[in-house]
Amino acid sequence: MSANVGFRCAQQIIRLLLPIVIGVVTSAAEQLPRIEANPNHAPAGEVRDGVLTIWLEIAKGEWHPEADDGMSLSVYAFGEAGHPLQNPGPLIRVPQGTEIRASVHNSLPVSITVHGLADAGMDNAGLNLMPDAVEQISFKATTPGLYVYWGASENEDMRQRHGIDSELTGALVIDPAGTNPNDEIFVIDLDAHFDAKVLFAVYIPGGCMTNDLTIAWLCE
């Protein structure tokens, strides 16, 4: 075999193999971390001397809403730094009067606005995070009840979130001072991939709170 023939053969082999190699590299690049189901049994962060410190991450992951080996959706999700992404996001639960100090890292290539990391009625415009930015926020948890923290890349109205933003949600629970709750917390986020744009968050302190997005009731 002449050198020219061998060279042409090598070129043909490269042309045949190159799409396969590129496909393998692209597939590896698109692999996303798995989003774990959060049973809300353990609060996130660390409490010391009346202060809760928590580091939250926002990232893109693969969510399996039906079964571990079932269909998957690529969505944005919250996680606690050093832990897997979770859906719903890490549970923030503190006694009334606790100061909450949260750091939030947006690892996405798009800006995210996070709402709900504030005492009742004090959210205002939310926390705006540019791509790869870290922002800190602190507030005192003075009003007992169930609250939802959530994020979005495009909409400022939680009811209008859809698709990739639809799972970017977590529960914030402020227990009345002096109580020792023995309950379960359920956050049921209906997936907007299926044209459902409503969130039901369930909290169980012995009372009921409702608004147009959140329903809470007793479950003892």
List the keywords.
220 residues, mainly beta, Immunoglobulin-like, 1 helix, globular, disordered C terminus
Structure description:
By secondary structure, this protein is mainly beta. It has a domain of 150 residues: Immunoglobulin-like. 12% of the residues lie in helices and 39% in strands. It has 1 helix and 16 strands. Strands 1, 2, 3, 4, 5, 7 and 10 form a 7-stranded mixed β-sheet that branches.
In short:
The chain is mainly β and 220 residues long.
CATH top level of the domain at 32-181 is: Mainly Beta
Low-confidence stretches: 14-29, 192-220
Provide a count of the helices.
Answer: 1
H/E topology pattern: HEEEEEEEEEEEEEEEE
Strand content: 35-45%
CATH topology of the domain at 32-181: Immunoglobulin-like
Quaternary organisation of the protein chains = single chain
Termini gap: 82 Å
Describe the global form.
globular
CATH architecture of the domain at 32-181: Sandwich
Helical fraction: 10-25%
Question: In terms of topology, how is this protein built?
Answer:
Blueprint: H1 3-29, E1 36-37, E2 46-48, E3 51-63, E4 73-80, E5 85-87, E6 89-95, E7 99-106, E8 112-115, E9 127-129, E10 134-140, E11 145-152, E12 169-175, E13 186-189, E14 199-202, E15 209-210, E16 215-216
Parallel strand pairs: 1-5, 3-7, 6-12
Antiparallel strand pairs: 2-3, 3-4, 4-5, 7-10, 8-9, 8-11, 11-12, 13-14, 15-16
